[in-house]
Amino acid sequence: MGVLNVFRVAGDVSHTVSICILLWAIHVNRSAEGVSLITQSLYAAVFCTRYMDLLWVNPFSFFYNTFLKIFYISSSLYIIFIMMRVFPRTREREKAWKFGGACLGGSLLLAPFAMLIFMKKEEWSFWEFLRSFSLILESVCVLPQLLLLRQTSVPTVIDSFYLLTLGAYRALYIGNWIERGITEKGQPEAISVVFGVIQTLLYADFAWVYYTRQRVKLRNGAVVDADDLGRGFLVSKVLGRADRSFDEENRPEGGQGNWGARGISVSADEETTGSRPKPPAKDRPAGSDDRPEESRGMLSNPDAFEDNDSDVDDTLPQSRPNADTSRQ
User: What is the DSSP letter of 269?
Assistant: First the structure.
């Protein structure tokens, strides 16, 4: 773990920069709108379980590692604190919390099987279980954040630079594993490689969706929608067509109000906010008229359609008198 190479250093720098970008964006905007509290909580769980060796490892044996471990744990806990106590944040829906719980529980259940497949029996320990759990969980931590980007209806402090640096971190670590496999004896840790590749593919797939989305399309405020995510390969399987209910959780019963399926206004003559849908025809009083008041007044008064101006154009010459009359 103490061996450094250019890929590992670049990956650590990219990961650190991504956290700094997120902290800077939250403080500059004085808001955490669009940042997933679920994702940040999962990251805190990842760092606290993976770096538990800080309790018994000499911190000065490899200060580079120690500094980064402390920074990742403290920054993740600090982000959670300011999101809950200092700055406003986006309220995530109940299904999103259940989805985050499924990521956490699935990682716990999958960790023993990953150890059974990829590790020798003499290497098993509670510490290795925690580390395997953290590697599996980290590969899916970003999914609640991607879900929130599709749901949020307010400007978000999350930007492409944060997602780019966060995704590049694991991609650079793949180069680190390859380089270590060539220069060092033995094989790189299989669990890190397998779930690191999965994590990188999720980021790459979302990057494709994000940069190829229809920029002129109305999404009711969201960064991407289900149709955009449907063009992805991996992300669409988790957040795309199969989970449209996430987007419809708060939709009014009996229809979509003034908005269509893609967030586009149904009627350009109606107000897009605060207007009430018309009651069904069967619930309206007998003899009621759906037409606007001005239209009803015009139809009830035929004189309203009369044009007071003369139909004769004054600019045209008057008609000449009959020739027979002029000779009389």
Answer: T
User: What pLDDT is stored for residue 153 in this prediction?
Assistant: 57
Backbone angles phi, psi at 265, to 5 degrees: -60, 135
208-238 pLDDT tens trace: 776 666 555 555 555 665 566 666 666 666 7
Number of H helices, E strands in the chain: 12, 0
Distance CA 251, CA 271 (A): 18
Report the alpha-carbon distance of residue 16 to residue 166 in Å, rounded: 9
Contacts 24+ apart (CB under 8 A), 231-240: 232/205, 232/206, 232/208, 233/205, 234/201, 234/202, 234/205, 235/146, 235/202, 235/205, 235/206, 235/209, 236/209, 238/143, 239/143, 239/146, 239/147, 239/150
Distances 113 to 110, 133, 136, 249 between C-alpha atoms, Å: 5, 10, 11, 35
For 140-190, write each residue's pLDDT tens digit. Answer: 998 888 888 776 655 567 777 888 888 888 889 888 888 877 777 666 778
The H or E element spanning position 130 is: helix 126-140
Q: For residue range 268-306, list pLDDT tens digits in order.
A: 333 434 444 555 555 555 555 555 555 555 555 556 555
Query: How far apart are alpha carbons 130 and 105 in whole angstroms?
Result: 13
Judge contact between 132 and 111, C-beta under 8 A: yes
Residue type, 132: S
Query: 287: which DSSP letter?
Result: T
pTM value is 0.69
